[in-house]
Write a structure and sequence with these properties.
The complex is a heterodimer of chains A (about 110) and B (about 110). By secondary structure, chain A is mostly beta strands. Chain A has strands at about 5, 10-15, 20-25, 30-40, 45-50, 55-60, 60-65, 70-75, 85-90, 105-110. Chain A contains no helices and 10 strands. The model of chain A has no long low-confidence stretch (mean pLDDT about 90). Classes of the chains: A mainly beta (about 110), B mainly beta (about 110).
C-alpha cells in the first residue's frame, strides 16, 4: 500500500510478557502483509507474513492478525525473550504485481530482564 | 551467490563527491529494490527494477540520485554531488520472481558524507 502507519514507535515489555505492534494501511488492494525483524547492525529479515485470504497466522511464539475491513494488521509476540529485542517493520503490498514496497516506520522492541 | 551482496560495506566521502554503491542480488532474482535507512527509521523506498528497467523510481529524492541495472543482475546506485544529508545506510533487496513475497536484503552500505 502507498501509506503504512506503524505504532508504537518504541515498546518495552518485561521478559515473558506479550508484545503487540500494530499497522494500518491505506491501499485497499493490498493483499500481502509481511513483518521484518532487524537486529542492531544487521539486515532486515522476514519473520512472518500473511495473505489477505486468512485472518490469522501463527508460527511458534509469533502471530499476525489481519482485519481487512478496518485495514489494519498486528504482530503478536508471546513469552518474549531477550533475543526478541530488535526493530520490527511491517509492510502492506499487492502480492501479484511487483511494485514498490513501502515499510512502516518501525517499532523498537526492548525486552526487560 | 548465497545472498544479496552489497559493496562497499562502508563508504566515507567528502561533501560534493560522487559515489557508486553496488548491489549483487541472488542469482535469478528478477526484481531488485533500493532503500535508504537513517538511524532509527524504517527503510525508505528509493527505486525498484524489474529486469533491466526501472519500474518505479518515485522514491529517488532528487536528480543527484540515479540507479542502473544494465544486464538485469547487478545494480549500481549513483549519487552525485553528495551532501551530508545523504549519510545513511543504503539497503538493497531482491525477490525471486515477479511478486512481492519475501524480500531478501543485503547487509547494506553505510555511507558517511563529511
Amino acid at each position: 500500500g502507498e501509506n503504512v502507519e506503524q505504532h508504537p514507535s518504541t515498546l518495552s515489555v518485561q521478559e515473558g510478557d506479550s508484545a503487540v505492534i500494530k499497522c494500518t494501511y491505506s491501499d485497499s488492494a493490498s493483499n500481502y502483509f509481511p513483518w521484518y525483524k532487524q537486529e542492531l547492525g544487521k539486515r532486515p529479515q522476514l519473520i512472518i507474513d500473511i495473505r489477505s485470504n486468512v485472518g490469522e497466522k501463527k508460527d511458534q511464539r509469533i502471530a499476525v492478525t489481519l482485519n481487512k475491513t478496518a485495514k489494519h494488521f498486528s504482530l503478536h509476540i508471546t513469552e518474549t525473550q531477550p533475543e526478541d529485542s530488535a526493530v520490527y517493520f511491517c509492510a502492506a503490498v499487492r502480492y501479484s504485481s511487483a511494485s514498490k514496497i513501502i515499510f512502516g516506520s518501525g517499532t523498537r522492541l526492548s525486552i526487560r530482564p | 551467490g548465497a545472498g544479496v551482496s552489497q559493496t562497499p560495506s562502508n563508504k566515507v566521502t567528502e561533501k560534493g563527491k560522487y559515489v557508486e554503491l553496488r548491489c549483487d542480488p541472488i542469482s535469478g532474482h528478477t526484481a531488485l529494490y533500493w532503500y535508504r535507512q537513517s538511524l532509527g527509521q524504517g527503510p525508505e523506498f528509493l527505486i525498484y527494477f524489474q529486469g533491466t528497467g526501472a519500474a518505479d523510481d518515485s522514491g529517488l529524492p532528487n536528480d543527484r540520485f540515479f540507479a542502473v541495472r544494465p544486464e538485469g543482475s547487478v545494480s549500481t546506485l549513483k549519487i552525485q554531488r553528495t551532501e551530508r544529508g545523504d549519510s545513511a545506510v543504503y539497503l538493497c533487496a531482491s525477490i525471486p520472481q515477479a511478486t512481492n513475497e519475501k524480500l531478501f536484503f543485503g547487509s547494506g552500505t553505510q555511507l558517511s558524507v563529511l
